[in-house]
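Each field is set out underneath.
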Amino acid sequence: MLVLAKPMLVASLLASDFPSENPRTQTRNFPYTNRCATFEQNMKNLVLIIIFLTLNISSFGQSSNDCYKIKYLDFFGLDQIEVVKWTQSELDRLLKVNFIKEREHSEIKTSFIIPMIVYQLKEFHPNCTDDVDTNYFNKISEIYLRIRELDSTEFRKKSIIEKIDFLRDDFYSQVNSVEYLPDMIVTFDDGPFYGVDYHEELDVKPNKIQKTQFGTLIISSLRNKTILTCKDKNGSIIWQKLITGFKNKKLSELHFIENPMEYNSAAAVAHMYSEGEKLTLYLKIDGGFMFYFHSW
């Protein structure tokens, strides 16, 4: 049972048919060394705060979807929801967060807040409104710059259009970076993982072949190892990986869920599972490898 106050929201969480969604006893035999429990708890609190902020909303006035284009919001599930505004007290709480320390002492990255800021930007663009709330815009911009560890000196000299364009372009650069994109994904799964390039020729029958918009994904097993191969529509190999998980453990199995492929403006996503837990694979639109997460 999950209870959130102001407003009172109650969610009864039922057991899932998918193994990884149900709580289970953890059996990892390793110490969590060099962990700061205080910072870890602070980050968990921050995550809950942000999730809470998205539920406790006050709506902006409506604006045309075409007044200012922002790409890649569909990747984060923000393209079809109404733009929301956080309260001043909630913004002030975020401005008090030391994002650098949080990032240093927690596995959860604060960059997941960035898309939530970017999808609000059009509400401040002169093409979309005649009444710009500059105080609110300045606060979310400051939060953005702090997360990115960017100096605000030159930013403050820009016009509001230039500021919005700067934030949008910086957001684009992160989405298009395999280094930064994983940090903007809200997940408690292990990862990102990148597997190990596998160059040997496979002379085994595939376990499963999944058709995609760019070609095929092929799962093969070889001596308790799992090989995932990506081919284009001509049958040429784009990449081939030995699939590994936490602490470079070789995963012994891999399966597709039913209708596993999902496509958006930033990626092709394959929903899979391995050793009873979900594995989410992110690829470029043309099938190029990016990374994957594995639940535990």
